Each structure stands twice: as C-alpha cells, then as structure tokens.
C-alpha cells in the first residue's frame, strides 16, 4: 500500500474554524464506528461522530429485547457520552448525500460537514430478497425499534388469544437459520414451554407453534458440523419445527407460502435472514458490490477516493469479503483509525488482516454453541457460560453490564417466575 501523497486539510475546515487539525468524520455509531473513534482518541485530528440516533445499540442482544428479557435501555449506550469520553464531538442526523469531490457530507438537519478523511460505518439494513409481502408483513429485528415492535406485537397477541380463546393453531414463523434466527426460535420456544403456562394459564402451550424456516439443509451454516447438529437437536427438543431446504415464496398477513406450495400459518413472521446496504448509498457515487456494500481496497480505502474508508458491514474488500459480524466490524474500524494515523505521519498503509476469534450462538437456557477460532468447539453449558461472559463483557457501560446480567439471570435461572417486559399495545 502507498501513502496518500497530499492529504488536503482545507476542505475539512470552515472559515470560522480555529482548530487547524485534520477533520475526520465517522458515519455510524455501531461496532465499526465506535472502534474507529476510539482508535483516534490520541491522534492529532478532530473527530466528529454522526448517527441518526443519539445512542449506540448492542445488536447481538436485540432478540432478548424482542422476546421481553431486557429493556431497550439495557443494550443501548449514549453516543454523545461516548464521543465526549474519547475527545470527539457528536452530530445527530441522517446522512442524505456524500460529495467526494468537495469532501462534504450533508445531513437531514443542520449544516454540512466537510472532512479530510471520511469513515463510512453506517451499517446495513434488512434484505427481503424481493420476496413479495416480506417488507409489508414480516417483522425484522435489526434495530431497537424493530425489536420493540416484535415484543409489543407478541405480548399483545398473547393477551388477545388468552381473552378470546383463539389460541388453537397460533404460530410464529422465524425465517432464517443463522445465529439470529436460531436464537430467536429457541427463545420463543422456551417462553412457550416455561413462561406461558404460568403467565397465560388460559392457553394450551401445545397449541402455540414455533417454526424455523431455512432455505439450506442445515441451521447455523457457518458453524462446524457437530455444532450445527447440536443446535438442530436442541431446537427440536424445545419443540421448534424445523423446515429445512425450504425457500419462502411469499409472506402473507397470516401465513408464509413456501416455494413447494406449502402454506404455514403465521400469526407473526419474524424475518431473520440477510442484510443489504441502505438504498440511499446508491446516490453517494461510490462503487458497490454484492448486497450494495461499498467496494474498498485491502487497506479499507475506496480506491477512487483514498480519503474515504468503508468499514464494518457496509464495506467489502473485493477479493476478500469478510463476514458481517461484530468482530470484523470492530477490527476494520480500528484499522481505519490506525491507517489515518499512518497517513498523517507520511507512512505507507497496510493491508487489513482479519483475526478470526470465532463465533457463537445460544439456543436457550444452558444451551449454546461456540466455535472458537484455533480452539475448542464447545456445546452445552460451557458454551452458554462463554456466550454469557463474552456478551456481557462487550457491552458499553457498567450499568448496562449489571442490568443485562440481572435480566438474563431472571430469564434463565428463574424461568417460571420470570416476567416478560411489556410495552404499549401496537393496536
């Protein structure tokens, strides 16, 4: 890699600026964006973190919010506070346009931001793959608002069928056999088996069905075979109906139609498969690859505009695509920050090297799988304890760690006495 021959600092400053340091604008307060900001905290630059929300969400635990174990505040952290602690500033707003020629970012509110270096880390959104009715009738769980919508719809429906006696054949269909889909289906089945008899004695749990639909012949495809088999067995033990090698043809208001013509009753369809770039990224004038991800070189810079980085889920190295997981996002964000420091020092850039630490998923109480890179492949209680420790430790803020620990303890250690966190009736 080569150094940026002549970084232009003037476009990053307005006439009224008194700070002459290069301006780095970071778009997105997710894993990648926060890692980038943190890596620049001692750099001779001024940093502006931009996000359309005033908080950062710990996405791996969104399904616990969706199923009522945690409050949304337990897995969110103030973006302003984070920026302040790292010496950055924060701007709340949604990016409307990026002009690489003038090095300007326009937001839906407030003045434009001009940058010397731009780190795009705004993540992706749900991909419905063009399935008719999916966007209209399915419930994604990719954002805090979506997780709350799932929770409120689920609890409202349970109250309705308990009052009316219409529980017969009630079904939740989860589409997607990856980690999110497996975790969601396993948790829903455990709620049906343990909480429902105590909290909704009017309902017969045997009449409430959880179905997991996956288009391949296995759940958790990226995991080792033994872990995949364990996860499938644990789901079946909890009463989850697995529909493997089943493609979704259409999502209807109260059913899911499969490609083979089978129609599954679905009083709620949870969409847990696939992500893609936001539509507005197309207008930014940057080359996009599969799923709309911005194509970058090995050092994570956009080749046509080397002052722009794309990291986390939104960026893709043309010849070495990374999985869209938390660790690649964190590591690419860190690398972008370090690369900017090298450029400022006149040093050549380095190719990003991903250090795979493994991946994990939980199925339910005392049941998880952990595929640790260059280490053991764990199942059962030990994997579950590792999963608990890793997720709690990764949270921002001691308050969140304490409240998540308590919430998960109530869910998994006192299931029949546990409460489901409820909100407003969506109507």
From TrEMBL:
Q: Which UniProt keywords apply?
A: FAD, Flavoprotein, Membrane, Oxidoreductase, Transmembrane, Transmembrane helix
Q: Which residues form the External alternative NADH-ubiquinone oxidoreductase-like C-terminal domain?
A: 357-416
One short Pfam family name for this protein? NDH2_C
Q: Which InterPro entries match?
A: FAD/NAD-bd_sf, FAD/NAD-binding_dom, NADH-Q_oxidoreductase, NDH2-like_C
What is the required cofactor set for this protein?
FAD
Q: Transmembrane segments in this chain: where?
A: 378-396
* Keyword Membrane set for record: yes
Which protein family is it in? Belongs to the NADH dehydrogenase family.
- Name under which the protein is recorded: NAD(P)/FAD-dependent oxidoreductase
Query: Which intervals hold domain FAD/NAD(P)-binding?
Result: 23-333
């Amino acid at each position: 890699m080569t150094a940026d021959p002549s970084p232009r600092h003037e476009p990053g400053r307005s006439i009224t600026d008194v700070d002459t340091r290069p301006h780095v604008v970071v778009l997105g307060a997710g894993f990648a964006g926060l890692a980038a900001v943190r890596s620049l905290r001692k750099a001779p630059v001024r940093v502006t973190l931009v996000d359309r929300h005033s908080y950062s969400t710990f996405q791996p635990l969104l399904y616990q919010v969706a199923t009522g174990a945690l409050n949304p505040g337990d897995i969110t952290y103030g973006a302003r506070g984070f920026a302040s602690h790292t010496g950055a500033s924060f701007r709340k707003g949604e990016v409307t346009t990026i002009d690489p020629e003038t090095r300007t970012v326009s937001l839906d509110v407030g003045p434009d931001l001009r940058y010397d270096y731009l780190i795009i880390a705004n993540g992706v959104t749900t991909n419905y793959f063009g399935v008719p009715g999916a966007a209209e009738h399915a419930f994604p769980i990719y954002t805090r608002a979506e997780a709350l919508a799932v929770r409120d719809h689920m609890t409202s429906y349970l109250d309705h069928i308990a009052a009316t006696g219409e529980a017969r054949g009630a079904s939740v269909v989860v589409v997607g056999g990856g980690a999110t889909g497996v975790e969601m289906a396993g948790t829903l089945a455990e709620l049906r088996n343990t909480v429902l008899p105590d909290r909704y004695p009017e309902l017969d749990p045997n009449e409430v069905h959880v179905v997991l639909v996956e288009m391949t012949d296995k759940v958790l495809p990226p995991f080792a075979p033994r872990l995949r088999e364990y996860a499938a067995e644990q789901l079946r033990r909890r009463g989850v109906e697995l529909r493997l090698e089943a493609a979704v043809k259409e999502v209807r208001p109260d059913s899911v139609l499969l490609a083979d013509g089978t129609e599954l009753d679905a009083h709620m369809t949870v969409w847990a498969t696939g992500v893609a770039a936001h539509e507005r990224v197309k207008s930014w004038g940057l080359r996009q690859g599969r799923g709309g991800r911005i194509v970058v070189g090995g050092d994570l810079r956009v080749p046509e505009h080397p002052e722009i980085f794309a990291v986390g889920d939104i960026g893709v190295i043309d010849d070495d695509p990374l999985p869209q997981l938390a660790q690649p996002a964190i590591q690419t964000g860190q690398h972008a920050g370090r690369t900017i420091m090298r450029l400022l020092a006149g040093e050549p850039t380095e190719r990003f090297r991903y250090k795979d630490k493994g991946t994990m998923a939980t199925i339910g109480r005392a049941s998880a799988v952990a595929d640790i890179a260059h280490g053991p492949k764990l199942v059962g209680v030990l994997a579950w304890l590792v999963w608990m420790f890793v997720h709690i430790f990764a949270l921002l803020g001691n308050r969140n760690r304490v409240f998540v620990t308590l919430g998960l303890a109530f869910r998994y250690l006192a299931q029949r006495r546990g409460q489901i966190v409820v909100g407003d009736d969506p109507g």
